Amino acid sequence: MATHEVTFPITDPAEILKLRAGDEVVVQGHIIGIRDRTQIRIFDQGIEPPMDLTGAFLLHTAPGVRKLDDGKYEKVCIGTTTSARMVRFTEPLGAQYGVRAICGKGGFPDEAIEPMRTHGMVYFAIVGGAAALETTQIEEIEEVAWEELMPECLWKFRVKDFGPLTVGIDAHGNSLYHDVQTAATKKLEELYARL
Amino acid sequence: MPQLLDTDLQGAVEDAAAHLYVWSLKDIPQDLRDALKDAAGRETSVPGQRVLSTILKNVDVADSERNLVCQDTGIAVYTCRVGEHFPLHPARIYEALRDGTARATLEHPLRSNAVHTITRENTGPNVGHRLPIVHWEFVQDWDGLDVKCVPKGSGSENMSFLKMCVPADGVKGIKQFVLESIVGAGGKPCPPGIVGVGIGGSADYAMYLAKEAIARPIGTRNSDPIVAQLEDELYGLLNETGIGPMGLGGDVTVLNCHIEHADTHMTLNPVAVNYQCWAARRATAHIAADGTTDFDREA
User: Fold this and answer.
1) Do B65 and A132 make contact, defined as CB atoms within 8 angstroms?
2) Domain B6-26+70-151+281-296: which CATH class?
3) Which residues lie across from A70 on neighbouring strands?
4) Partner of A77 for a Cys bridge, out of A23, A64, A168, B48, CB 3.0 to 4.6 A?
5) Which residues in chain A touch residue B50, judged by CB atoms under 8 angstroms apart?
């Protein structure tokens, strides 16, 4: 399993193709925070997001923040939420907006594998709950759109050494989650026989 | 003995709640720290080791930065043990817990997670209709109050399961349901955590017992030896599933399995599963009748 450093947003799709399920990745550059209500607004209500998502890294988050007098937001505690609730947005995020990476915790079910292969996307697994550490890796909240959805806004963060992340699903059709579930389901039969 | 004014005591309970909520989110109990270190020591998979070493690093960063361990401040859940001679009525204790929760949320500030369950509009600083959630236990011949705060994150709470097994399913049915629930949950509840199991009683009570089970110090055992034996067996079986830390595969799927039980109807065999993530936060205040408060991270 290799270790990579990737800067987002990416311009060269080959950057994504070299990542394999199980690899370790550390991310630099800019990432975009997004959550349930943000994506419901984009896709179910058909409202164009006021940020460019081309080549983007999306993080499933709803940060804890403090609003400053000048209208900017200061980080308090930023962590990552369960991804599986938002799996149905994978296909349109890739097809319509050119998103290249989705990062969350707990993984995506198998329905994400094909869209990720087709559109050259990856799923990054972060350690859920490790928000104290994650917060130190976010240097600044640079932009916030759709503040009325607080805390489920569109957030633009500048990050440094964000990770370590694990490639959970790669752009070649491999999913650690699929493999683990397949093995565990088989193991269950063996365990049941022992009860 | 001078009669203490209810308002003073109510203020003491409110202060205790405000402190407990923030403290529990920042400073996890020693038994949990030990269990996580132990897990990191025995995990052999590469992604699993990566996850556990990141978790340990995160706990250190939360200590040094005085930040929250996890951003999900959860729904505030309190368990109160009220002595029959504690001189503040539970109606006022509830008010104090609600006000303390709201105050902590605004003062820190903490993320406010509370929404109306249909409109999804935010209802206030982690309070709302029937929020926070408070469970009650009443104790004879005592004048104290114990308040345990267990902020419950949504990632793990979403992985809650109930099955009304029939008596013919027996204990085997209980074991199968717990195993299939945890395999089905995969990485979503932030494993490795505490699997709480409630058996017996009724549907609602089994789920309450499962919640009570996750709030116990890690690795404690049910006082009924038959139930304790089931805890040991399930703990071993769950770690054979291979789900691993954050569902990425590995040896450590759960930190432990706790079971609470109640006697039940001859026709019932309910089993409830409530998951507590690795950031298994809890903190307790022991409040005396005069308002003197001792805080306790390990209870």
Assistant:
1) yes
2) alpha beta
3) none
4) A64
5) 24, 164, 166
